[in-house]
Amino acid sequence: MFVYLDKSGDLGFNFSTPETSQYFLVTALTCSDRELIERAVRKFFRELPKAELSKHQTESQTVDGNLETRQQLLRLLSELDIKVLAVLLDKRQVLTDIAKEPDLIYVIMVNALMNNIFSTVPPPSKGHVHLITSQQVVDASFNDRLASSVVAHAKVRLGISVKIDFKDKAEQVGLQAAEIASESIFANSERNDPSLMELLGSCLVEVHQVMT
After folding, report:
1. pTM (whole model) above 0.85
2. Is 53 helix (H, G, I), strand (E, B) or coil?
3. In CATH, what number is assigned to the domain containing residue 99?
4. Which residues of 117-145 are buried (b: 16+ CB within 10 A; e: fewer)?
5. Are 114 and 154 in contact (CB under 8 A)?
6. pLDDT in tens, 144-203
7. Is residue 94 left, alpha or beta, with left meaning phi > 0 and alpha meaning psi from -120 to 50?
8. Phi, psi of 134 (to 5 degrees)
9. How many other C-beta atoms lie within 10 A of the C-beta of residue 67?
10. Three-class SS of residue 138?
């Protein structure tokens, strides 16, 4: 089983600046066969006009820059054997003390998302869950702290073995798909625009609001 993890929004709390988001979202795209999603999404990008691809550094940026392309890809994802789950934080409800620890908030949300995934999706009967996420830039040691917390939480609380890899999003089709799904869900909360999220159809299992 593969879990691709992405986030949308930020963990800043200075709401007087327009750059600070009201919400923070962590999204998981799960699948049992990552080759299925990679083949489908790579085929989709290969069929895009070269002129459109050449405007952007990565394929996911191509989707960000073109609403019609984003809509088409979300429809494609809705037809694949995947599940999308997310946890959402309204940052205005965060207690002052924990607001000073964005790393901790992120870890709490990832562990909450893992709980939700495996209350919905049966874990593999043998082997491990392969969690893939992009490199975090909070600080040099954050990847290690995140991995240690998630692995321990999955083993102790869920009885699941988890392997975590931190990858370059530009080289991981699954991460790009998770990013596009995440941004569509985020638009629903942050901008009250459900139009993109609705295109995910039944593969969107749930968006659960968390409290810290």
Report:
1. yes
2. helix
3. 3.30.420.10
4. bbeebebeeeeebebbbbebeeeeebbeb
5. yes
6. 889 999 999 999 989 999 999 998 888 889 998 999 999 999 999 999 999 999 999 999
7. beta
8. -80, 160
9. 11
10. coil
CB 90 within 8 Å of CB 211 = no
Residue 137 near residue 109, CB atoms below 8 Å = no
Range of the domain at 139: 2-209
CA distance 73 to 156: 37
Contact 81, 32 (CB under 8 A): yes
**Within a 13 Å sphere around the CA of 165, how many CA atoms are in the beta-carbon half?**
14
Q: How far apart are the C-alpha atoms of 158 and 2, rounded to whole Å?
A: 16
Q: Which two tokens stand for residue 34?
A: 């990552």
196 closest CA partner among 64, 59, 91, 70? 70
| Total domains, the chain | 1
Nearest to 113 by CA among 187, 203, 206, 43: 206
Of 30, 18, 31, 23, the C-alpha closest to 7 is 23
Convert the pLDDT of each residue in 51-94 to its tens digit: 665 554 455 554 555 788 889 999 999 999 999 999 999 999 98
Alpha-carbon distance of 181 to 76, in angstroms, equals 11
